[in-house]
Specification:
By secondary structure, the protein is mostly helical. 71% of the residues lie in helices and 0% in strands. It starts with 5 loop residues before the first helix and ends in a 6-residue tail after the last helix.
Length: 131
């Protein structure tokens, strides 16, 4: 995947082979990302995504890195909408909003998030959850 984040790719693959519900998969992945504390990929994507002067090869690398998250999480959003666990709406838009929020959190103070992380991630997931 680049940027030394093969563990994120591995975690996404592991989540696809569990019996967790879609929302539980998203929670597990978000919790993993926040606990890992390696926000480099999110910071790079967030920073470079806002740069008009980015070389084309870097744009492609950033796009492909972000695409991995999109392609992995999108089916979870769709499945969660089908089973009534995730709110209705444009699944692409829901995913993009969620990933933007996560990248903003990861670019901020992770110490705050790691205190009572399960409770805080539950609160975060309310933006997607029908519960």
């Amino acid at each position: 995947m680049g940027y030394g984040n093969g563990r994120y790719e591995k975690k996404l693959d592991e989540m696809n082979h569990t019996n967790l519900s879609p929302l539980e998969k998203i929670k597990a992945f978000a919790t993993f990302g926040l606990k890992e504390g390696n926000s480099d990929i999110f910071r790079v994507i967030q920073h470079l995504g806002n740069s008009d002067k980015m070389p084309e090869h870097i744009q492609e690398l950033v796009f492909n890195s972000g695409k991995i998250y999109m392609e992995s999480l999108f089916p979870w959003i769709l499945e969660g909408q089908k089973n009534g666990e995730i709110i209705q709406g444009d699944p692409q838009e829901l995913l993009e909003v969620f990933l933007n929020v996560i990248s903003g959190i990861m670019a901020d103070d992770l110490d705050f998030w790691n205190q009572n992380i399960d409770q805080k991630v539950d609160i975060l997931l309310r933006m997607l959850s029908t519960r």
